[in-house]
Amino acid sequence: MFRWLRNSFLTGIVIATPLGVTLYLIVTFVGFVDNVVKPLIPARYNPETYLPADFTIPGLGVLIAVLLLTALGALAANIFGRTLIGLGDRILQGVPLVRNVYGALKQIMETVFSGKANSFKEVVLIEYPMKGLYVVAFVSAEGQGDLKHKISEDVIALFVPTTPNPTSGFLLYTPRSNTIHVDMSVEEAAKLIISFGMVTPDKLPDEVKASLPRAIVDPPKTD
């Protein structure tokens, strides 16, 4: 009976924790956007103006933000809109410091949302920071220009994320021949990193499995 209660309690934690954290992040994000967008709405156009004082519409700011972004995208599709956006782009590009931040963010967003981008679609292993130690890395780009000539013709850019926060990490350049391809999706690799390696997929290459302790590759089954 004690073992059943313990297993039931642990199962409840496993189910409730990701659900609770996800709901918390959603509520926090919606509340943040509402607090930013709602004050910008004129009172006459704000539906909450005509409602009781203690009644609010959760998600109204998110809805308005989505509509505004959609309208901005539609405006950019015609000549007049492209002219205005181009003018604003040139103004921002001419302001010191601002142009550095704006240019970097613009390039990142264009790369992420471009259909031509192949970033973070391949997972590899590389020996880092020393021989015999393997880390999971994402292929972010093919080497171009002087990097390609100085390092190797098949040089690639790797993003090595940190654990348990995969949004930070290191940028490495290396010939593709130094990497080991892993038949693993980006989502599976992210789970591996976030879980401190406890969620280990069964797709590691044989040469890597051979170098790892058996307890990691084939962990003992427990009740």
UniProtKB/TrEMBL annotation:
<keyword id="KW-1133">Transmembrane helix</keyword>
<feature type="transmembrane region" description="Helical">
    <location>
        <begin position="57"/>
        <end position="80"/>
    </location>
</feature>
<feature type="transmembrane region" description="Helical">
    <location>
        <begin position="12"/>
        <end position="37"/>
    </location>
</feature>
<dbReference type="InterPro" id="IPR007462">
    <property type="entry name" value="COV1-like"/>
</dbReference>
<protein>
    <recommendedName>
        <fullName>DUF502 domain-containing protein</fullName>
    </recommendedName>
</protein>
<dbReference type="Pfam" id="PF04367">
    <property type="entry name" value="DUF502"/>
</dbReference>
<keyword id="KW-0812">Transmembrane</keyword>
<keyword id="KW-0472">Membrane</keyword>
